[in-house]
Design brief:
The chain has helices at 27-40, 73-81, 139-152, 163-177; strands at 5-6, 45-47, 57-61, 83-95, 99-103, 113-117, 120-126, 132-138, 187-188. The protein is of the alpha+beta class.
Length: 192
């Protein structure tokens, strides 16, 4: 089932997610619905707060990046197959020289801005079967994971742009939170 994406301005996007266990109600159904929602909205990641759940869960599927001819065959093969469920993740390390990349967000449609992030991360998490993993990622996979991880920490990518950019975006962000945006996927806007 396709779920509505929560728009900027909703308090759930600012909450730090709570850890869950294997007995979390309808977890498997939630993961299936989040994946369907992500694919329907052409996202490469989706976090539980974006569908109204303040829990430590997000999904990543970097396959759309694999179509970019700029990347090596090896990078494209990795991106095409990097599809994960992250439960109760913890980024234990971020390293390397910061690099800018234009990010967008399903909760903030129509806005893309350069965000500086470190290119490499180490993340510990449980998959959908509650098997523990530790992964070292770099490049786009690391960036998508960092972006989604920020969601479960109550951080949006617009928080990471310069104060000047924030001032320029203020009116656009207010319009989105009021529902004054044209999107091809269902959204839920903050109650006024």
């Amino acid at each position: 089932m396709i779920l509505p994406i929560v728009a900027i301005g909703d308090p759930v996007l600012r909450k730090k997610g709570k850890e869950i266990d294997q007995d979390f109600s309808k977890l498997e159904e939630l993961i299936v619905n989040m994946r369907e929602t992500m694919l329907n909205s052409y996202g490469v990641g989706i976090a539980a707060p974006q569908v109204g759940k303040a829990i430590r869960l997000f999904l990543v599927d970097t396959a759309p990046f694999a179509e970019n001819e700029e990347y090596s065959d090896e990078e494209r093969a990795f991106l095409k197959n990097y599809n994960r469920v992250f439960i109760n993740p913890t980024i234990t390390d971020e390293y390397g020289e910061y690099w800018d990349f234009s990010e967008g967000c399903l909760s903030i449609p129509g806005i893309n801005e350069d965000v500086a992030r470190q290119p490499k991360v180490t993340i510990e998490y449980y998959d959908e079967k509650f098997k523990k993993h530790t992964e070292n990622l770099d490049g786009l996979a690391a960036r998508v994971v960092q972006h989604e991880y920020d969601h479960i920490e109550g951080i949006l990518f617009t928080d990471l742009v310069s104060p000047f950019k924030k001032r320029l975006l203020k009116r656009k962000l207010e319009k989105i939170s009021k529902g004054q945006v044209d999107v091809s996927y269902p959204m839920r806007f903050p109650k006024r």
